[in-house]
Description:
In chain A, strands 1-2-3-6-7-8-9-12-13-16-17-18-19-21-22-23 form a 16-stranded antiparallel beta barrel. Chain A has 2 helices and 23 strands. With 436 residues, chain A is mostly beta strands. In chain A, strand 8 and strand 9 (184-197) form a beta hairpin. An 8-stranded antiparallel sheet of chain B has the order 1-2-3-7-8-11-16-17, covered by helices on one side. In chain B, helix 1 (29-50) runs antiparallel to helix 5, helix 5 runs antiparallel to helix 6 (258-270) and helix 6 (258-270) runs antiparallel to helix 7 (275-282). The mean pLDDT of chain B is 81. Chain B is globular and about 60 Å long. Chain C has a domain at 32-62. Chain C contains 2 helices and no strands. The mean pLDDT of chain C is 75. Chains in contact: A-B, A-C, B-C.
Amino acid sequence: MQLKPAPSQLRRRLIAASCALLSTSAARSQETSAPGFVGRVLKDWQFESALAYYHEDGRIQAIEPVVNASHDYGDGGNVSLNFTFDALSGSSPNGALPSHAPQTFASPSAKSFASARHPFTTRPGNLPVDPSYSTARAAGGAEWTLPLTRLSRITLGGKLSIEDDFYSGTVNASFAHDFNDKNTTVTFGINDESDIIQPIGNTPVPLSNYAAFQKEGNKSKNGVGALLGLTQVMTRNWLTQLNVSVDRFSGYLNDPYKIASVLDAGGTTTGYIYENRPDTRTRKSVYFENRVGSEHASVDLSLRYMTDSWGIRSETAQVRTRWWTPDRQHYFEPTVRWYHQGSADFFMPWLPAVDQADTRYISADPRLANFHALTYGLKYGYELGNRLHRSSSEFTVRLEYYQQTLAINNRVPDGLQGLNLYPGLKAVLIQFGWSY
Amino acid sequence: MEERPGGLLAVKFTAMACPCEVLIHGSDPTRTMGLGVMAAQEAWRIEHKFSRYRDDSVVAWIHGHRGSKCTLDAETTALLDFARQCFEMSDGRFDITSGILRRAWKFDGSDRVPEVATVAALLPSIGFAKLQWDPPDLLLPEGMELDFGGIGKEYAVDCAYDILASYCNAPFLLNFGGDLRANCAPPQGPWRIGVERPDSDRTAAMLLDLESGALATSGDSHRFLMKDSVRYSHILDPRTGWPVVDAPRTVTVAASSCTEAGLLATLAMLQGAGARAFLEEQGARHWIL
Amino acid sequence: MKIFNIVLLLTLGGSAALTGCSTVGVKPWERDILSRTDMRPDGAGLDDAIDEHLYFSKEASSGGRSFGGGGCGCN
């Protein structure tokens, strides 16, 4: 230990520099030492929000705001909350086929044609749609990630969704473990979903005659699923992921509002029956994704193959690329998605009257048909400035065009010649996003 | 939390990959816990903000914006400007852009000294002067990296100290893995600090008394390479890319702030054989082992 | 179904193999590009959620990337 001689010039400069450094930090800690609750929440949480507007073909419109708030704990844990609201209105196809004659339907809540308050008539040649379809949904979820060791963590989550005819609750849990210097991650998760279906006007008796207005009580369905995932860092620029998942639903799996046209031998519509689907459905899917990135761009290619116990097989391929401007203030992200599905075993665009007695399962819902769909999308992002550098706050605009083309090959009977039976679907999505 | 002799309560946690503790005298357990948590949160905050391992840190953000200008927040600006001053004061020996040298040098006690060409290839990407630093705007050229590891821990001690000092009048000591700061001595006498002697039993430590102020230690006892009987310490000279020659094994310096003490210790090590003379010239209390 | 079972076995086998194999991958300081939002599997959270909702209500498949859709009465 020495006596203290006068500080040298270097020492004095060092003292001055460290005082300057620490005084800014002290000033900052003074001003933030007691921020208000709102100030603390804004500082510690990350928010992401989006407003999506969906418009289908002159048929359905939907508006969907979504908000997500996320907070990282110091130890690698995280909690996130999300909330979604969506409101749909417009006209929804009910599964019946166009006809050369006008067709009259009642709204789901009607008890008979005579007492129906808002019957609607579809003009000859048009696809029957229910014009007064309107529904609103509110859903919320929370997820909590807890690190177990330096290389592993568990995540627990729950979701709740409420609409006027459908209630759903889901819980999920997953476990992830890192290997190889965190270059390999294996994830295993399970989930359980319970739904209660309370259709407007009560549940129609499956396969019953539409005009008979036979109804029964509320229904429910339950699903369990499991997912095994492998994520592997290949190089500094390339990441790959492979997921296999399986799920099984059982209970009431019908769409309570969907009917099928019953046709006589000549092809004239003689009536309608409510659809009926099997009461179990097991699905298996494989998902493979590759992301490759450079300093100013990235490409994401993903493939998915799915099969299920209803005989449906689907293939999905999606390419998404992002390109930044040199100053990294703006980016453009075009997307193309190609989707193809085979029809369910019990899908039939109509039911011949002669088969009605023997038919156990039938659905004319085009969503179970053979079709392919293309999506073209473009997203633009603008980086708003630096907020704690954790994730830059940004403003985004996204535009997507979705088109479905049905491929139903059933021989068209004479009575339906000259009609556009399967018009398919065209829709546009516009979305504004803001994250902070 | 645990009790220590002399009426001290200690709150222990891990931050910046080393064991940390906060010792407070004469306070009740709840309050001590609260103060310890505040110190820990500040340590974690700084660790997360400046860590080069996290993808949500300021450093990751700066690295992601190589080649373009970024505007830094007040705290990062202050820290980077401090690093600039240290660079100038040390004639380029202290350089936070020298982190990429760890790709060539792995100090695991073996004899794998890198090739001259390997080290030379990294030199063009080192040099604080190559940064376009115009506070608060920074442009980090391609291929370069920033590493706040050399000043981060001591800075964290000082920030946590300021927070605690504004809430607590009782004597307390912060110890983040060997970098310490205390506000005042407890009634029974100065804080007793044990500094590990290199190459010897952990118990045969040198004991120092600290009344108030900060203590920082720079040393190589656990990280070195040994080849042909030459010991290469882990303190690298950024101007050459090679370890400083004949650096002392451990340097401990006392000063009023931990940042100042830590930098004096590091600068002393960077002087190599001239460490002792350097510290005497600066007029700092020091111990070299 | 058979294809699915083969891929499941490959994933399990692949996971087991890769957990021991350390030649593929990067050092911690090489994760700069990988840490960008557009390079992370869960990076486009909100967009993916909105898209997933759309496809769930118009198609017969859902999920794959994470847990299958569902949770709404739109299918």
